[in-house]
Amino acid sequence: MEKIRALIIANFRWRGRLNRSGLYISIGLFYAFGLLALPLQVMLAVAISLDAAWLAVGLNGLLFIVGAAMAWNLLGAVVRRLHDRGKSGLWLLLFFGPHAAVVALISRIPLSEQKMFTLAMVLGMVVAAPFLVWGMVEIFCLRGREQTNCYGPDPLATKAGEPAASLP
C-alpha cells in the first residue's frame, strides 16, 4: 500500500521516471478511482431528475475536482514515463497535438457538409495517425533508458544484488 501511495504522490509531482509497469498500475488506479466516482455520478443523475439544482451544482463541482485530480495524476504518470524514455513532457504536444487540432477543426464543420466532413476526416487521420501511433509506441511499448538521465536514475536498476524496483 505504501508503494501505491508513493506512486500517486510521485505522479502528482510529475518528477522522476516511471517504468512501464508503474504506468500500467497508474492506469489501473485511474479506472479504480473512476469506479469510486460512480456513486457520485448516480447521485448527480438522481438530483437532476428530482430538480434539486443546489445538490446537482455541488455534485458537479465535486465530480469536477475528482476528475481533475484523476486527470492530473494520469498525465503526471505519462510525463514520468516520457522522462524514463529520456524525453520531456512537452513531447505530448507533438504526439497528441495534431489529433486535438484535427478534432477541433472537424467539430466546426457542419454535418450537412458531408463531402467536406469526409475529406477532413480522411486528411485528419493521415496527418494525426502517425503522431498518435508514434506516441503510443514511445509511451507504452519501448523500454526506458538504462542509465541515469537528467530526470533521475533508472527505475529498474539494481543495487548490490537487490531485486529491481518496479514502482516510483
% residues in beta strands: under 5%
Kindly name the structural category.
mainly alpha
Write down the overall mean pLDDT. Answer: 90
> Which spans of ≥5 residues are poorly predicted at pLDDT below 50?
none
Question: Treating each run of at least 4 consecutive H or I residues as one helix, how many helices?
Answer: 5
CA distance, first residue to last residue: 13 Å
Radius of gyration: 20 Å
Please count the beta strands (DSSP E, at least 2 residues each).
0
Helical content (DSSP H or I, runs of 4+)? over 70%
Largest sheet: none
The shape is flat
List the secondary-structure elements in sequence, H or E.
Answer: HHHHH
